[in-house]
Structure formats: C-alpha cells, structure tokens
Amino acid sequence: MFALSARDAPMKGRRTYASPPCLAAEIDPAYFDPLARDPEQARDVARWRRAERARLADLRKALGQEGRARASRAIADHLEQALSACNTGHGTILAGYWPIKGEPDLRPLLEKLHEAGVTIALPVVETRAAPLVFRRWAPGTKMVRGDWNIPVPPHDAQELTPDVTLAPCLGWDGDCYRLGWGGGYFDRTLAALRARPLAIGIALADARLKTIYPQPHDIPLDLIVTEAGVLARRSG
Ligand SMILES: Nc1nc2c(c(=O)[nH]1)N(C=O)[C@@H](CNc1ccc(C(=O)N[C@@H](CCC(=O)O)C(=O)O)cc1)CN2
Ligand SMILES: Nc1ncnc2c1ncn2[C@@H]1O[C@H](COP(=O)(O)OP(=O)(O)OP(=O)(O)O)[C@@H](O)[C@H]1O
C-alpha cells in the first residue's frame, strides 16, 4: 500500500498499465493515437505544477538572503568547473539569466567569464508564447525592463545564438527535467533552435522532485547544477 503524497497528486485515481493499451486500436481504429494527450491528465499536471511552483518559491524565500547568497556561490563554483570540463572558454556564447524572485545570482561568474573571453547573452521575451531571443550583455550594459519586468539588454544589443544556456529552475527531477515559472519559454526555445545548445539547469538541491510528470512539450536539460554538485542526464 502506497501513501499518496501531494507530489503524486496528478496520478491519483488513475489506472496505470503494465504495458501500453496498444490493442485499443484493434477494437476501435479511431481510438488510439500515440501523439494525443489525455486532456484531463494534462490539466491535473498543470494544476499540480502551479501548486509546486508556489511551494518551491516559498522554500527559496525561506532560505533568506544569506542562505541564497551562500547557495549562489556554491552553484557558481560547481558551474565553473562543469563549464571548464565541457571546454567552454574564449569564443563560447553562453546565455545566462538576470536573477529574479530569489533565483541563484550568478552575475559575478558571468562577469568573470566575460573577462575570460566568453560572450555572454541574456534571454529576452520579445513575443509572448514564442521562443526566447538572446541578446548580448557585458558588465555595464544599460538594462531595460522587459516582459514580467525582467531586466534585459536593450533592443539594439546584438542577437546571438548560444552554445550553452543556463536555465534557472524552480524545481527539477532526476531525469534532468525542469520546472520553471510556467511560461514554457525554455522548452519552446530548445525546440526551436536548430543546433541545440548545452542546456544547464540551475537549482537548489532541495528543489528536487521525484518527477515533474514530463509532458510531450518538456525537454530535459543536459546538466543540473545545484549547491550540492552536478547531475548529468543519462543518455539513451
Ligand atoms: N531570471 C529569469 N529570466 C528569464 C526566465 C527565468 O525563468 N528567469 N525565463 C524562463 O523561461 C524567461 C521568462 N519567463 C517567463 C515565464 C513566465 C512568465 C509569465 O508571464 N508567467 C505567468 C504564468 C504563465 C502561465 O501559467 O501560463 C504568471 O506568472 O503570471 C513570464 C516570463 C526569460 N527570462
Ligand atoms: N514547444 C512548445 N510549443 C508550444 N507550447 C509549448 C511548448 N513548450 C511549452 N509550451 C506551453 O507552455 C506551457 C507551460 O509549460 P511548462 O509548464 O513546461 O513551463 P515551464 O517550463 O515551467 O516555464 P518557463 O520555461 O517559462 O520557466 C505548456 O502548458 C505548453 O502549453
């Protein structure tokens, strides 16, 4: 007997199958479409994600400024090592992010990487519900207010295609799936880029979930970096 926790909520009351119900098409050919989503389950997952986002945002707030600063420094150290193991250096285009709502602040590392010759970009929501645009940033760039009041480089800053992109996570799971703020922007962006960048999630270790209940649009990241270390996605 399993106790259903809040984290299991989307699957509550649903029957699961030991194997896919693949004979359904033989009963009614119109019935089985492997690309179709179960709208009821998608709604349940969306509701669960909203609740988890609120819980995880509170968890981050509860850390306090000093706790978050300590975590940010540890994340920056692990990230720096991971980047150097991936041969990221002079000439690489790396998309960071401008921290909002208690996200780990990696701006000191972005400055250091810039000094080392890495080209830094930041994400910009230029069109709602569309892929992100990345624009060049350097220390001293005069920022403007973008969508959701997120500071972004000005409109005339050079548009870049990143080799590496950092993605701040509210939550994450052991398969390197990310839970963000709910706009779907990173998934859309990774889906749209012809050459996929190395995608690195930035998260607190405590924000790990058993699963984010990945949906067809969710794209797993390559690495997750937390204050406790680095998780690489198993390939295959
Ligand atoms: N610092 C930082 N910059 C970032 C991101 C991020 O996660 N962190 N993004 C990472 O993607 C992009 C912005 N992401 C956004 C995500 C959601 C909404 C938004 O309007 N959210 C709605 C709910 C949307 C919904 O539920 O459908 C809201 O909260 O009202 C806006 C921007 C680009 N820049
Ligand atoms: N490739 C895509 N094409 C169309 N819609 C998408 C795509 N990816 C995500 N979406 C839409 O975005 C919605 C929110 O996605 P999700 O819950 O994964 O957000 P998130 O990854 O937490 O947000 P964000 O990346 O902005 O922080 C989904 O319900 C889906 O409708």
TrEMBL record:
It comes from the Bacteria. Keywords: Ligase. The keyword Ligase applies. The lineage of its organism: Bacteria, Pseudomonadati, Pseudomonadota, Alphaproteobacteria, Rhodobacterales. This is 5-formyltetrahydrofolate cyclo-ligase. The keyword Ligase applies. It comes from Lutimaribacter degradans. Its EC number is 6.3.3.2.
